[in-house]
Amino acid sequence: MERDGGGGSLFFRGLQNRSHEKMKLRTRKSTLYLSQQKRTGRGGDFLGENIYLVLFTIALRICNCFLVQTSFVPDEYWQSLEVAHHMVFNYGYLTWEWTERLRGYTYPLIFASIYKILHLLGKDSVQLLIWIPRLAQALLSAIADLRLYSLMKQLENQQVARWVFFCQLCSWFTWYCCTRTLTNTMETVLTIIALFYYPLEGSKFMNSVKYSSLVALAFIIRPTAVIPWIPLLFRHFWQEQRKLDLILHQFLPVGFVTLSFSLIIDRIFFGQWTLVQYNFLKFNVLQNVGSFYGSHPWHWYFSQGFPAVLGTHLPFFIHGCLLAPKRYRIFLVTVLWTLLVYSMLSHKEFRFIYPVLPFCMVFCVHQRGTLDVMTTIQELCYNNTNISSASVLMMMPCHSTPYYSHVHHPLPMRFLQCPPDLTGKGDYLVEADIFYLNPLKWLYREFQNDSTLPTHLIIFSILEEEINPFLISNKYERTAIFFHTHFPESRTGSHIYVYERKLKGKLNQT
Questions:
Q1: 3-state SS string over 89-137?
Q2: Which of 146, 164, 221, 461 could form a disulfide with 152 if both were Cys (CB 3.0 to 4.6 A apart)?
Q3: pLDDT at 44 over 80
Q4: Could you tell me the pTM of the whole model?
Q5: Residue ranges with strand state E in 301-409
Q6: In this structure, is the dihedral angle defined by the CA atoms of residues 293, 215, 147 and 326, taken in order, positive or negative?
Q7: CA 78/CA 103 separation, integer angstroms
Q8: In what helix (H) or strand (E) does residue 496 lie, and over which residues does it extend?
Q9: What are phi and psi of 243, to 5 degrees?
């Protein structure tokens, strides 16, 4: 498309001349202005994340372990530690679930291994027998927290991942349960880690064998662990082009190996071949024996259980659900499906729905992009060796982002303005409205001279396709993506894109 010649650009009127003046800028020594990559890369990586983040998470969960000194439900002892103690020291008491072979030895075997090591080392004091299993569970929960953070960093960006991570750490029910030796806790840990490998749009570590192996392991530990995964497994099967290969070469081998593993372990300790998963489902689902320990009305999870488990996250979760983008609807379906299935059982407990809590954290973070994108502009100012030529144009609804208060640098910037009509003109249109009538035409009219083009453009995702010819013809490349909201509407997109003009021999260094 040809552009009309003549006429000066309105871009950075007043600021453009200033950009050529010599200005003495202060050197920033504060770590707030350091490059994000420099800050996160100094300590090396562990579990794919910054070592300091890993150590912080582990330390937090260890503190979590020692601060939670209350009892929740009998199962945290009687279905794990008591069984492990009996396995190693050959005395104790096993509840009726074990005589009826409703429970498997796979989960207690983890703690029995710890007990055996302590016994062989002569360190099987009562305090170590109490605290080492809980510390082991705390470590596993810390790994799950980090995997949730890594997943969100892949699906969105680091800023969103931090807020989801923050919500996870601030969840009162997670804090209350994640260091307890409950099968529900292990089920939640395995669910989060499996989700990290699940094939989601944007994920870089999707692996069908790994995620299905973790789901299968969760199933042999607690058969109801498969409930939240039914919608996810069905979605994967539906979207998979090689469906037969998925079943024959991945799901069936994984299922066969894990079930065989469970059968062998239970054969060793029960002394006979036992399919505990079938016995568990038969007693608790088909025969509804669990109602002996109390029953609740069908709506209990919706009216009491789920709101209590979410706690202060509830209003953020509800708001996030109303604005949920299409690709996260599978998480919402998973939560609702799990609540509905458990609602059909008469015996209900808070801990049963603990595994869906991490899914909910994703919905508690929204409308972050207009703040997060300012981080990129800060880095442009304080880490760009070619700062004198840098400039930014924000093609968004007016006042969408903060401005110089969040940059603190005389960087030439411009946004679409929208002052009210103070002249009394009947055909008055603000600059933002004129732009959105025909964005491509506006751009070519404004920038008739290449020298006036900004080095960086900031737009909402919904605008990208419409102005793509301008971006291509002027050699703009997308360099950053920020999640903004769960529901794009009108001129506001779900994500914010940062475009940088790349010229041969004169690349902008950010």
A1: HCCCCCCHHHHCCCCCCHHHHHHHHHHHHHHHCCCCCHHHHHHHHHHHH
A2: 164
A3: no
A4: 0.72
A5: 392-395
A6: negative
A7: 11
A8: strand 495-503
A9: -65, -45
Sole residue written with tokens 């700062």: 387
pLDDT tier for residue 7 given thresholds of 50, 70 and 90: very low
Tokens of 54: 């890993």
The one-letter code for the residue type at 502 is K
Instruction: Output the six-digit token pair for 269.
Output: 């300790």
The torsion of the CA quartet 304, 309, 313, 316, rounded to 10 degrees, works out to -50
* Two tokens, residue 178: 């994640």
Q: Are 360 and 349 in contact (CB under 8 A)?
A: no
Summarised one tens digit per residue, pLDDT across range 339-365 is 999 999 888 999 999 999 999 999 988
pLDDT score, position 507:
44
3-state per-residue secondary structure call for 229-277: HHHHHHHHHHHCCCHHHHHHHHHHHHHHHHHHHHHHHHHHHHCCCCCHH
Specify the residue for token string 């009394």: 424
Length of the chain: 510
DSSP secondary structure of 130-164:
HHHHHHHHHHHHHHHHHHHHHHHHHHS-HHHHHHH
What DSSP line would sit under 10-42, residue for residue? -TTTTHHHHTTS---PPPP-SGGGS-HHHHHHT
Residue with tokens 């899914």: 359
| 38 token code pair | 């420099």
Cα dist from 382 to 12, 27, 117, 388, 392, whole Å: 20, 9, 53, 11, 15
Closest by CA to 361, choosing from 321, 389, 333, 401, is 321
Mean pLDDT of 431-452: 90
Q: How far apart are CA 35 and CA 505, in angstroms?
A: 24
Average pLDDT taken over every residue of the chain: 85
Question: What is the spatial distance between Cα 77 and Cα 383, in angstroms, rounded to a whole number?
Answer: 54
Q: Which residues of 114-124 are buried (b: 16+ CB within 10 A; e: fewer)?
A: bbbebeeeeeb
Give the whole-angstrom CA distance, residue 193 versus residue 134. Answer: 19
Of the candidates 274, 250, 252, which has an alpha carbon nearest to the alpha carbon of residue 263?
A: 274
Task: Calculate what percentage of the chain has a pLDDT beyond 70.
Answer: 86
Residue 498 pairs in a beta bridge with 458, 480
Virtual CA dihedral for 42, 48, 51, 57, nearest 10 degrees? 140
- Token duo for residue 288: 């509804």
- For 480, phi and psi rounded to 5 degrees? -155, 150
Compute the distance between CA of residue 32 and CA of residue 10 in angstroms, rounded to an integer. Answer: 33
The answer to whether 108 and 133 are in contact (CB under 8 A) is no
Distance separating alpha carbons of residues 161 and 175, to the nearest angstrom: 19
Tell me 460's DSSP state.
E
Beta bridge partners of 495: 483
Q: CA-to-CA distance for 377 and 303, rounded, in angstroms?
A: 45
95 — phi, psi (to 5°)? -70, 175
Contacts of 190 (CB under 8 A, 6+ apart): 214, 215, 217, 218, 221, 225
Query: What is the tens place of the pLDDT at every residue in 85-130?
Result: 999 999 999 998 898 898 999 999 999 999 999 999 999 999 999 9
